[in-house]
Each structure stands twice: as C-alpha cells, then as structure tokens.
Amino acid sequence: MFVLEALPALVLGVVVLFFLTDRPAKAKWLTDQERAWLENTMHAEELARAAKQSHSSAWRGLADIRVLALALVYFGTSAGLYTLGIWSPQIIRSFGASSLEIGFLNAFPAVIGVIAMILWARHSDRTKRAQLARHWRLPAGGGRTDIRR
C-alpha cells in the first residue's frame, strides 16, 4: 500500500529530474525573450541580496511584519485545530457522551465550515465580489471564536 501511495511522487520526481533545468539558459521551453528577462531579474536579485547580506539579516527577517502575520495565522490555525482535536472531545465526554456521540458532535463544526465555504464561494462567484469575500474572513473567524465561549 505504501508503495502505491509513493508511486506518483516517485514518477513526478523522475520527470522533474529530467525535465527541469538548473538555470534559465538551459530551459528549452522558454522563449529567448523570457529567458533573457528571467536571467536579468535573477541577476539583479542576486546583486541586491549580496548587498544587503549581513549577520543580522535573519533577525530582521523574523521581525518583518509579513513573517509575524504568518506566525499569527499559523498560531490561530494550530490553536483551533488543537481545540477541536484534543480539548473538545474531553469537554464533550465530561457531559457523559459516548464515543460515537463525541465523534459526531466534534465533527459538527467542520461540517458547518465545509457547507459555509461552498455557499460563500458560490455567492462570491455569482455576485463577482470576491474582494468582499476576502475582507469578511477575519471578522467571521473572530465571530466563530466568540460563539464558542
């Protein structure tokens, strides 16, 4: 069974090994114009990176607002998953529910989430207001945590 699961990754690895190249100059699938643009862009990025390189660059990277925002998102996701995976079943069990009932009750928020995502995506596609859908994610997530208190 494990071999069957690994087979697509192994085949893709062999294809990538022979198909992808190390440098844009060797890429046959790029046009000359694309190849020149990519090489110039990569060269400019290398020069900029070499000029900014210092020992404190790692600390500056960790203090970057984008890295901090991604860390906050990861923390929120992990906290929510641990809540559903570890603490919710224990809380539900304290009410005297059976294992089957715990499974169904613990799956309920995920089922509601799937339904909400499908409905929200349809609404966004139908009204052509995807930007509005992006802006409502954060308040909706915050409201979800307030409902659980």
Give the arrangement of secondary structure elements.
Layout: H1 2-19, H2 32-52, H3 57-62, H4 65-94, H5 99-127, H6 130-135, H7 137-147
Which keywords apply here?
single chain; transmembrane; mainly alpha; transport; 149 residues; MFS; MFS_trans_sf
Walk me through this protein's architecture.
The protein has 149 residues and is an all-alpha fold. The protein folds into two domains: 2-53, no CATH class; 75-147, no CATH class. Helices cover 81% and strands 0% of the residues. It is built from seven helices and no strands. It has helices spanning 2-19, 32-52, 57-62, 65-94, 99-127, 130-135, 137-147. Helix 4 (65-94) packs across helix 5. The longest helix has 30 residues, at 65-94. The model has no long low-confidence stretch (mean pLDDT 83).
Order of helices and strands: HHHHHHH
Rounded mean pLDDT score: 83
Helix content, binned percent: over 70%
Question: What is the count of DSSP helices, taking H or I runs of 4+ residues?
Answer: 7
Counting helices, strands and paired strands, the structural category is mainly alpha
Largest sheet: none
Terminal residue distance: 43 Å
| Morphology call | extended
What is the gyration radius calculated from CA atoms?
Answer: 24 Å
**Percent of residues in beta strands?**
under 5%
- Secondary structure tally: strands: 0
Low-confidence stretches: none
Domain count: 2
